[in-house]
Amino acid sequence: MVHVSEETGTVGGWALDVATGEVVLTAGARRIYGVDRQRLTVGHWLALYHPAERSELRTTVDRAVETGAETTGSWRLRSSDGTYRRVDLEMTPVAADGEVTTVQGTVSDAAARERRDRQLRQYRDLLDSLDDAVFIIDQDRTVVDANERALANVDRTDETVGEPIMPLVEAYAADSADAAAFERALETALDDGATSPDPVEMTLAVDGARPVFDYRLSCVSTRSSAAADTPARAVAVVAREITDQAAQAAELRQLRDLFDEVERIADIGAWEYDPETDTPTNTAGARRVYGVDPEADLSLAEAFEFFHPEDRERLRDRFETCLETGEPYELDARLTRADGERRWVAACGERVQTADGHPVIRGYIQDITDEMERLDRLEQIETLFEHTQDMLFIVSHSDGSFVVERVNAAFEDATGLSTEDLQGKTPSEVFGDERGRETEETYRRCVETGDPLDYEETVSAAKLPARASPTDDGLTHWETRIAPVEADGGVDWIVGATRDVSERKRRVRALERTNERLDEFASIVSHDLHTPLSVAEGRLDLAREACENEHPQLDAVADAIDRSQALVDDLLTLVRSGETVEHAEPVSLANLAERCWDVTPTAEASLAVETDRTVAADAGQLRQLLANLFGNAVEHGGDDVTVTVGDLPDGDGFYVADDGSGIPETHRDRLFEAGHSTAEDGAGLGLRIVERIAAAHGWTVSATTSDAGGARFELTGADTAE
Prior knowledge:
Layout: H1 2-8, E1 11-17, E2 22-25, H2 27-33, E3 39-41, H3 42-47, H4 51-67, E4 71-78, E5 84-96, E6 99-109, H5 110-129, E7 133-138, E8 143-146, H6 148-153, H7 165-172, H8 176-192, E9 200-203, E10 212-222, E11 232-241, H9 243-266, E12 268-274, E13 279-282, H10 284-290, H11 300-305, H12 309-325, E14 329-336, E15 342-353, E16 359-367, H13 369-387, E17 391-398, E18 401-407, H14 409-415, H15 419-422, H16 427-431, H17 433-449, E19 453-460, E20 475-487, E21 490-500, H18 502-546, H19 552-576, E22 585-588, H20 589-598, E23 606-610, E24 614-617, H21 619-637, E25 642-647, E26 653-658, H22 686-696, E27 700-705, E28 711-716
């Protein structure tokens, strides 16, 4: 302020040399005194004042020199036009070695001071009347002035003036981050002489309240004295309470965040097109559907280009119609995102009037790919439901009650009962009280366990108007599987599939009767054939005893009898081998193989056992399997063949291998067929029996070449018995 006043002529500086009586004037002082010279004698200087006051002025100066005390006063000064005006003088004695050598002072126009005082009072009244808080911070970070609002905001008095600013800020800031932001802005303003480009928002904690203020900082310059060469920096801070605006802004941000989240969850985005400016506006959600950058600007033409060509023209026509006539539109269309991914979207638009009255098109675009895929799956399920050959039904469950909701065409064809006939009926109403209660109990068990259930049903053909029973007992047999469908934490539905197995039951019964007759026939044949073969064998022995010399013809007869007996045994085994093993037990494969080898005609052949596996098997059937494989190896591998029993590499079973001549490639496809044999006199039943026994155990048998080039039979699925 002094610097500004000096330059504008409202204040000036002077210095009196006590020893020489010379007065030195600054430029401001020369303008006030109306003289050009920088140096004046004390007499010339005094002569510039009113004659009646010169003596008093001289006395005042002498007293300041004598006492060394600062002095102020007001005297009349002659102006250039001969009139007098009042000026203020400030005198400050400067001593050296205890003696005053110089008196320094200022001269200022009293009228200008009075005007400034009035202006300052006006400025002060104006500042105190503001709703904004205003305070000044000097370069030492000290509060040098503050208006009433600034003091009232923090419930302080004038004691705030003269205190460091940052302890005050840190004491009242609700968040230390806000205080740090204020300090950074203050440092920028003081150090760089710059105005803070952005306001600092700070929440205060005052008497339980949390008002929010917007602080704007501006750098100002002052001079600490008239003789100072460089201006000092200070910062004017204007704080405006924005609590309501901050709350509104926070609510708006919350709404915007909520809107963005809704758009993200629903895969939807909003847009607006202004025909006056030909500019579309897209939300972040709309850009996300298109797959473009969240900040990207899309023109109308660019937006249309994302759509499939067939849908693009249809969408463009509807858009233009909406723009011209106001007819809203909504349609499903195919869209290719910016990343090349193809999606289904719902596109909607309508014409609305803005606040200023001109029309715009507003709408949304929503990714409905998942919904379309669900609809496709529903259509597929509906098609499957209606056209599957199994009888399907849906039963609703509520409060422990069950009613039929729907059946498919196969159910109607099989029973003559349609959805219209059954819908809303309970099982008791459909099947009668007794069977209805049983059915409801089955449904209830399915609901309680939450697991699918399988069960069989037998229905009197008389209760099924669509068909007669295909079985001999007048009954229709169903196999049904039901499963619970959960929704909202409970089972709301039961879905079921029923298959009519009456024809299968008939075939099973017929097969059982055939098997019984076949088993009976096999027993009779076995008995009737074994008896004459035994007689023939006895007569052959008598013939050998009666003949003095050996006859090759008798040996041939003996071989024929042996083959006939083996064939009868194989046929009986093949007929009586079941589909599954009913009684499996842990069997040591090594022990059984060695015992079986001991009773197998093996000539010079040898057995190598390389397993300690214990398998779950029927010991008798497994012995028959090994005997057939051993006999096959000896028959086709030669008298000195080596047979090995070992584990498969992956532990999933075992193998029987030999080092004989192997299996011809041309025979492998038919190796396990009944009646097929590579030997001229073979019956072709041995390996067929092996396959039947393996299948009855749940194993799979396959033939390959052994490491030694012979035959190798692998039995997979023969897990170790627990």
